[in-house]
Design goal:
Layout lengths: L1 E4 L11 H12 L8 E6 L3 E9 L6 E3 L3 E9 L1 E8 L3 E8 L4 E6 L5 E5 L2 E5 L3 E7 L6 E10 L2
Antiparallel strand pairs: 1-10, 2-3, 3-12, 4-8, 5-10, 5-12, 6-9, 6-11, 7-8
């Protein structure tokens, strides 16, 4: 897992061509002006999903087998639970079509705060619980860039 500000994105270009494409897309677009929905970057290898939603009190942890997540906060802020997959117990089996599995964790929870202008990169071994309310419910706008592992 990596957490940083978008202004430092070039630091991570060397982590793979697809990851670089996703970071460049975030840097080159005026994300506040883009509507919610899916944006193709490089077919199914790299694509983005912009979402506006209200934060929630709780959720299950999740992970993905075939994609890395770059979660970038456009407006607002939220808490995101983070843990290694080895600390998780499956509660909803893997859905290959959605590349998504849900978990309960077996260790104390740790949270990161994701502020506007910051991103988190989650690899397949990084279980994460996004969209969690900080102090009070808030509407946020976030983009999740999906980057194929292979």
């Amino acid at each position: 897992m990596i957490k940083d500000k978008l202004k430092n994105a070039k630091t991570y270009y060397n982590l793979g061509e697809n990851l670089k494409k996703g970071l460049l897309w975030l840097e080159k677009n005026d994300l506040e002006k883009l509507a919610d929905g899916r944006y193709e970057i490089d077919e199914d290898k790299v694509f983005a999903s912009i979402q506006t939603y209200e934060t929630k009190d709780d959720a299950n942890y999740e992970s993905h087998r075939n994609y890395i997540d770059i979660q970038y906060m456009i407006n607002g802020c939220e808490k995101i639970g983070v843990t290694d997959l080895s600390n998780c117990k499956t509660c909803i089996e893997y859905d290959a079509e959605r590349d998504l599995e849900f978990y309960n964790i077996t260790t104390p929870e740790e949270y990161l705060r994701l502020n506007a202008g910051e991103f988190l990169i989650f690899y397949p071994h990084d279980a994460h619980k996004p969209s969690i309310t900080l102090d009070e419910k808030a509407t946020v706008k976030k983009v999740v860039v999906k980057v194929a592992v292979n």
